[in-house]
Structure formats: C-alpha cells, structure tokens
C-alpha cells in the first residue's frame, strides 16, 4: 500500500499504549488514529475509524483479543488487518489468533524496529510470521491431528498450478520471497506474482492465512 498507515491500538494497559504510540509515531509513514482499552471497544473503533492495522493485545477485559480479531476481520478483505502483540508466548493462543484471522503475531519484548517493520508488513498484506513462529504453527497442527479437509477448501486448492503449489509449500515453511526465489531459481518478481495469484485463488488476504490454510488442509505436507 502507499501513503500513511493508519493504526489503532487496543491494549488494556495505558502505559503500553503510550509506548506503542511513541514508537510508531516517530515514523513518517505511520499514524495512530485511536486507542482503546478493551476488545469490544476495539471492534467498534475499527468499524468507526477504518484503520489499516489494529495492534491488538490478547488478554483484555470485556472481549479477548482473539474474539475481537475474529469480529474485526469478519467483514472480508477490505476490513483492517490485525497484528497481535502480546506478552503471552503461548502456542494455543498463537493458533487461536491465527485461525481468528490475525495477520501477524509479535511478542511485546520485540525491539522497537521490529514492531515498526511488523506494522508495515501487515499493512502491505505480507503478514508476519517469524521462522520460529512458523515452526510452532507446524508443530501445533501436526500435534492436533487433522480431520477431512473442507470440500470448499479442496476446490480452492485445485485451482493452483503445480508451481503455485510448490510456492505455497515454501511459504508454509516460513521462507521469504527472496529465499523462495533462491530455492526455485526464479526472480523475486516472479515469486511475488506467484504468491499474489495463489492468495487470490485460495481467497485469503495474506501469507499468514495461506500458511494456516496449507496446514489445515495438509497441502503443506509434514
């Protein structure tokens, strides 16, 4: 995306919100358009203020961040993207947040520059899963077992070309576009095109959603 990224902060601790605002508003391309202290307020503010990114805590009063995320993104691809930022380094919370539609997951002890990069990445539709987080997603899906895939999901997967399936598998391993390009001996521009096409065919809004879909369906292998 181009222009200024509009950010809504949702955290029940005022000190945390203040710190996040200070970090983000030092950047000329980021602006904080609102702050809220609970999940219900986050849902209402997201609808009213139309931010590009909601930086969402997990544990909040009245409505937790997972359910708030689910409601924020329920309107489809034009709704704000959600970056979960939390102190809770929990595999179960991670899985719940990603299934709810979060586009990224970051711990509050991350460096300031990583926070800034994460907001930009999520706003751009790239999503944010570190290699470590991706590994834990893989282990979580593997450990939980898998039921028969949704027939509608199977139909979407069948739309992919062989090359797009190959790229999806590498995305699901946590590889960046440059790493995928190196792996497949392609240009990064070609990889970006493949990623954009597979996201459209799978009807998902970013790479994180594609990773979740790949593991839920078994398309990523084991």
TrEMBL record:
- InterPro entries in alphabetical order: CheY-like_superfamily, NreC/VraR/RcsB-like_REC, Sig_transdc_resp-reg_C-effctor, Sig_transdc_resp-reg_receiver, Tscrpt_reg_LuxR_C, WalR-like
Q: Does the keyword Protease apply?
A: no
Is the keyword Transcription regulation assigned to this protein? yes
Q: Which PROSITE patterns match?
A: HTH_LUXR_1, HTH_LUXR_2, RESPONSE_REGULATORY
For this protein, the record's SMART domains field holds:
HTH_LUXR, REC
Single GO MF annotation: DNA binding
Which protein are we looking at?
Answer: DNA-binding NarL/FixJ family response regulator
Q: Which Gene3D superfamilies match?
A: 3.40.50.2300
The Response regulatory domain covers 6-123
Q: Which residues form the HTH luxR-type domain?
A: 153-218
Q: Report the superkingdom from the record.
A: Bacteria
Keywords attached to this Swiss-Prot or TrEMBL record, sorted alphabetically, are: DNA-binding, Phosphoprotein, Transcription, Transcription regulation
Q: For the modification 4-aspartylphosphate, which residues carry it?
A: 57
């Amino acid at each position: 995306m181009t222009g200024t990224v509009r950010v809504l902060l949702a955290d029940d601790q005022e000190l945390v919100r203040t710190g996040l605002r200070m970090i983000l508003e030092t950047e000329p391309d980021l602006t904080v358009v609102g702050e809220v202290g609970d999940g219900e307020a986050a849902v209402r503010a997201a609808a009213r203020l139309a931010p590009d990114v909601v930086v969402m805590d997990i544990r909040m009063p009245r409505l937790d961040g997972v359910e708030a995320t689910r409601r924020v993104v329920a309107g489809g691809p034009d709704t704000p993207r959600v970056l979960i930022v939390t102190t809770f380094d929990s595999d179960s919370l991670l899985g719940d947040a990603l299934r709810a539609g979060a586009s990224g997951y970051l711990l509050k002890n991350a460096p300031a520059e990583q926070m800034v990069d994460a907001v930009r990445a999520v706003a751009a539709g790239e999503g944010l899963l570190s290699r470590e987080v991706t590994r834990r997603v893989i282990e979580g899906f593997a450990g939980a077992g898998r039921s028969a895939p949704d027939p509608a999901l199977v139909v979407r997967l069948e739309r992919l070309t062989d090359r797009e399936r190959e790229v999806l598998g590498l995305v699901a391993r946590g590889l960046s576009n440059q790493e995928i390009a190196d792996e497949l001996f392609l240009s990064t521009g070609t990889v970006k095109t493949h990623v954009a096409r597979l996201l459209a065919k799978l009807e998902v809004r970013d790479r994180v959603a594609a990773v979740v879909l790949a593991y839920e369906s078994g398309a990523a292998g084991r």
